[in-house]
UniProtKB/TrEMBL annotation:
Motif Gly-cisPro motif, important for rejection of L-amino acids: where in chain: 138-139
Naturally occurring in which organism (per UniProt): Leeuwenhoekiella polynyae
GO cellular component, one term: cytoplasm
Entry's EC annotation: 3.1.1.96, 3.1.1.-
Function of the protein: An aminoacyl-tRNA editing enzyme that deacylates mischarged D-aminoacyl-tRNAs. Also deacylates mischarged glycyl-tRNA(Ala), protecting cells against glycine mischarging by AlaRS. Acts via tRNA-based rather than protein-based catalysis; rejects L-amino acids rather than detecting D-amino acids in the active site. By recycling D-aminoacyl-tRNA to D-amino acids and free tRNA molecules, this enzyme counteracts the toxicity associated with the formation of D-aminoacyl-tRNA entities in vivo and helps enforce protein L-homochirality.
Reactions the enzyme catalyzes: a D-aminoacyl-tRNA + H2O = a tRNA + a D-alpha-amino acid + H(+); glycyl-tRNA(Ala) + H2O = tRNA(Ala) + glycine + H(+)
Alphabetical list of NCBIfam families matching this protein: D-aminoacyl-tRNA deacylase (TIGR00256)
Alphabetic keyword roster: Cytoplasm, Hydrolase, RNA-binding, tRNA-binding
Stored Pfam families: Tyr_Deacylase (PF02580)
Name of the protein this chain belongs to: D-aminoacyl-tRNA deacylase
Length: 150
């Protein structure tokens, strides 16, 4: 699984001119799922997201987590995070999981993250044409990959 996490002051996702999900201060996360991903990947990434200390404390240092800040999360499925651009100019998405594998993992990710966040994670719609709007706070943008745990 791959994540792109952006610390935001606000974010929303619109589908067919209707706002599907909207948050204030927190994270807007893009989630890409591979065929080989498992519950272990979900556990590791959701724990890292909730513990990530990138919010300012009272002294202005990035020392607090989303839990400390009582922040919100907007999660968007994003198969293009697994694009391979090694050969030619047209990306290959062979590593991205097909919907029959990805949707159950996506739903488990949402449930696990909501449980750890202690509030419901807002989402788009898996596979839909979505318009994502955000105000990146900082900017702070962090990438994580459960197969390359740096």
């Amino acid at each position: 699984m791959r994540l792109v996490i952006q610390r935001v002051s606000e974010a929303s996702v619109t589908i067919e001119n209707v706002i599907k999900g909207k948050i204030g201060r927190g994270f807007m996360i893009l989630l890409g799922i591979e065929t080989e991903d498992t519950q272990e990947d979900i556990e590791w990434l959701t724990s890292k997201v909730c513990g990530l200390r990138v919010f300012s404390d009272s002294e202005g240092l990035m020392n607090e987590s989303i839990l400390d800040q009582d922040g919100e999360i907007l999660l968007i499925s994003q198969f293009t995070l697994h694009a391979s651009t090694k050969k030619g100019n047209r990306p290959s998405f062979l590593k991205a999981a097909k919907p029959n594998v990805a949707i159950p993992l996506y739903e488990k990710f949402i449930g696990t993250l909501s449980q750890k966040l202690k509030k419901q994670v807002k989402t788009g719609v898996f596979g839909a044409d979505m318009k994502v709007s955000l105000v990146n706070d900082g900017p702070v943008t962090i990438m994580m990959d459960s197969k390359n745990r740096e």
